[in-house]
């Protein structure tokens, strides 16, 4: 039986994480005007993002905050763990898009994160039995495992060839191409796609200036 059939819709304790959440996580390591911008600049920001995406409970986030309060090095350690898994996931996604062998170090980081996943348990329910999950260990480990999960599912039973990186020179977002023809090139047509179109348009206008051949 596929593990996913154990996860009925609407059961009390679900954190629904899909591949878009995973890519949103990767894309928090962002680029703006050619400069890297980390959308998770602090442990606090990372925890808030995890709570927002439902991969960590508020209590778990608070527990991690309390543990790191007044201990800058502990906070830095937690945050670098988050960033390490994030960049490993990005690296593996990029090797997929480039049809290149993934780096063993990146896979090792992801595998370690996956091992910290939740434990599934059956619990009695008024209408029979429900599936619940018990969190073991560290809530940040669990959040990272949950975010890595959809990529693994996509690799095992999805369409990894639809994982792409944005064709824009100024954007390196990873996205899932769900278009019918699977030929999407930009993370978002409204932003990166339009920018690329505008740039092509400007280039055409320049080419069409007096003296040049006005084609198209
Ligand atoms: Zn883009």
Can you tell me about this structure?
The protein is α+β, with helices and mostly antiparallel strands and 216 residues long. Helix content is 48%, strand content 13%. The protein has 7 helices and 6 strands. It has helices spanning 19-26, 43-52, 58-68, 72-97, 104-114, 139-157, 189-207; strands at 29-32, 35-38, 119-125, 128-134, 163-165, 174-176. The strands form 3 sheets. It has a two-stranded antiparallel ribbon. A hairpin with a 2-residue loop joins strand 3 and strand 4. The radius of gyration is 21 Å and the shape is globular. The relative contact order is 0.13. The model is unreliable at 1-13 (pLDDT under 50). Bound molecules: zinc ion (ZN). Zinc ion binds at residues 166, 168, 171, 173, 186-188, 192.
Give the overall shape, derived from the CA principal axes: globular
For the biggest sheet, the summary is: 2 strands, antiparallel
What compounds are bound to the protein?
A: zinc ion
Mean pLDDT: 86
Order of helices and strands: HEEHHHHEEHEEH
Q: Which strand-content bin applies to the residues?
A: 5-15%
- Structure class: alpha+beta
How many runs of DSSP E, i.e. beta strands? 6
Rg calculated over all Cα atoms:
21 Å
Quote the distance from N terminus to C terminus. Answer: 57 Å
Q: Walk across the major sheet and give the strand order.
A: 1-2
Tally of individual helices: 7
> Uncertain segments of ≥5 residues (pLDDT<50)?
1-13
**Residues in helices, as a percent range:** 40-55%
């Amino acid at each position: 039986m596929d593990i996913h059939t154990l996860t009925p819709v609407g059961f009390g304790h679900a954190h629904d994480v899909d591949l878009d959440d995973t890519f949103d996580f990767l894309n928090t390591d962002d680029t703006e005007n050619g400069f890297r911008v980390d959308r998770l600049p602090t442990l606090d920001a990372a925890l808030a993002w995890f709570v927002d995406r439902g991969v960590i409970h508020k209590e778990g986030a608070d527990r991690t905050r309390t543990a790191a309060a007044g201990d800058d090095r502990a906070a830095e350690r937690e945050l670098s763990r988050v960033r390490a898994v994030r960049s490993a996931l990005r690296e593996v996604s990029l090797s997929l898009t480039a049809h290149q062998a993934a780096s063993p170090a990146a896979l090792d980081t992801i595998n370690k994160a996956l091992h910290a996943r939740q434990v599934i348990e059956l619990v009695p329910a008024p209408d029979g039995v429900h599936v619940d999950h018990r969190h073991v260990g560290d809530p940040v480990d669990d959040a990272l495992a949950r975010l890595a999960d959809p990529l693994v599912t996509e690799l095992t039973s999805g369409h990894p060839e639809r994982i792409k990186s944005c064709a824009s020179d100024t954007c390196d977002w990873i996205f899932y191409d769900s278009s019918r023809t699977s030929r999407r090139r930009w993370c978002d047509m409204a932003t990166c796609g339009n920018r690329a179109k505008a740039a092509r348009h400007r280039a055409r206008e320049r080419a069409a200036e007096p003296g040049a051949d006005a084609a198209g």
